[in-house]
Each structure stands twice: as structure tokens, then as C-alpha cells.
Amino acid sequence: MPIHPSDNEMKPSRRSTRWLICGLTALAPGCAAERAAITPSQVVAAIIDADNRRDLEAVAPLYSDDIEWIGPGGLRVVGKAAILERYREMYGQFRVTLTMSVEAETTDGNLAYVQGITRGALTPLDGGDAKLVEDRFVAILTRSGSNWRVTRLLWGPANESTSPSQ
User: Fold this and answer.
1) β-pairing, 94-108 with 76-78?
2) pTM for this entry
3) Cα(first)–Cα(last) distance of the chain, in Å?
4) For residue 17, is it within any domain?
5) Domain for residue 76, yes or no?
6) Which residues does 74 contact at the CB level (< 8 Å), separation at least 6?
7) Is residue 74 included in any domain, yes or no?
């Protein structure tokens, strides 16, 4: 007579199933970052990291829907769709190599700002001289639940001899 395992032996426990699902979803792109509570400066660093990889899908959720960019020369871009179009243009034209250093971060409830400097280069994909970047920035972020998102990003040249990035 064959021996059959009992139902308890055949069915995974709810606990082991929950751990399996959590483990598998953590491997999916973007899932772990969405669930993890990260600091405002880590959000800004994640934007720079996504820029360096030219990864539009990674950068999009880091901005609020009502994002506003204010840059040199009167540049003003409003709304996530407009911002993402600017990213598509930049990623399509340049290899991005940037670093970021934080000079200050302040958090008060669901509002934060990060101040710092971005340095690096935008190198044309079709050849040519790189555009050097050395910009001071202030990013204003708001928190919804555990997720911080940039709602305003202001930047300009760190010094007069550096060409502003736009």
C-alpha cells in the first residue's frame, strides 16, 4: 500500500508562501525601491543613478506628477509628462556621467529639501565634445506614505565659468 503524505505535509504554510512571494517580488525591477523607506537625499541620488544609466523607467517614479523644474536662463518645465520628454531627449543624445554631493538635507514632517552640487559630463552619443556640468541644486520633496518624491528642482551653474546643464 503506497504511503501518501498528509495534507499538512503537501501544502506550504501561509507563512512560507508569504515569504516566497515577498522574496520573488523583491527581485522584480523597482519593487524593492518602491517599498523601501529611503531618505530624501537617497531619492536625489537615485535620480542621478538613473540618469547615468539613461533609465527613464527608474527616474519617473522619483518625481511627483506636479513636478516643476526651474533652471538657468529662465528654464521652467512643469508636469511629469514634460519632464519625462526632456529626459527622453537627453538620454537619446548624451551619455550621462554625473555625481552628486549633498551639502544639506532638512526634513520636517512630509516636506524636505536637499541642497547640493552635481558634477560630471554629458557626452554626445554621436561624438563631439562633452558638456561639463557643475550645478548647484535645491530639490524640494514631499512624502506620501513612505515614499519621497521630488516636487520642485531648482538648479544653476555652481560658478560662472561652468556651462549650465539644461
Assistant:
1) unpaired
2) 0.74
3) 77
4) no
5) yes
6) none
7) yes
The 131-144 sheet, strands edge to edge? 76-78, 63-70, 147-157, 131-144, 111-124, 94-108
Asked if residue 86 belongs to a domain, the reply is yes
Instruction: Show the domain range for 67.
Output: 38-157
Please state whether beta strands 147-157 and 63-70 pair in parallel, antiparallel, or not at all (unpaired). Answer: parallel
- Write the CATH number for 94: 3.10.450.50
Residues in the chain: 166
pLDDT, tens digit, for every residue of 136-163? 999 999 998 889 999 999 999 998 654 4
98: nearest Cα among 28, 45, 38? 45
31 vs 58: CA distance, rounded Å: 11
Q: Which cell numbers hold the place of 73? A: 536662463
Give Cα 104 distance to the centre of its chain. Answer: 18
Per-residue pLDDT reduced to its tens digit, 76-129: 999 999 999 999 999 999 999 999 999 999 999 999 999 999 999 999 999 999
Domain count, the chain: 1
